[in-house]
Design a protein that fits this description.
106 residues; mainly beta; OB fold (Dihydrolipoamide Acetyltransferase, E2P); four-stranded antiparallel beta sheet; 1 helix; 5% helix; biotin; Biotin_Carboxyl_Carrier/Decarb
């Protein structure tokens, strides 16, 4: 955790600068690179139906599930060929944005 009175260094091209961290900066969540094997919700919604179960081998473009959001039924498609490792939500669940729904293994 960074103290708000502590100077934080950053670099723009070749110049190095020092500045005090704002409250917004100190409270932010650290960024993590997205894992392509984790299928997450891009918008909040309700899980309507799964077309796969754990252990199924699925091809790129196949429908994994249906997520209702903003009064639309959204087909969640498989991004690459793989196997369903884990389903983390169940039908009828209301899920927030960025919720982990399915874990895939290549």
């Amino acid at each position: 955790m960074i103290n708000k009175d502590e100077l934080v260094g950053f670099r723009v091209h070749t110049m190095e600068y020092q500045t005090k961290a704002t409250k917004k900066y100190t409270n932010r969540k650290p960024w993590h690179a997205p894992d392509p094997c984790e299928i997450r919700s891009h918008i909040p919604g309700t899980v309507i139906k799964f077309h796969v179960k754990v252990g199924d081998v699925v091809k790129e473009g196949d429908s994994l599930m249906v997520l209702e959001a903003m009064k639309m039924l959204n087909q969640i498609a498989m991004p690459f060929n793989g196997k369903v490792k884990e389903i983390c939500v169940k039908e009828g669940d209301k899920i927030p944005k960025d919720e982990l729904m399915i874990i895939i293994e290549e």
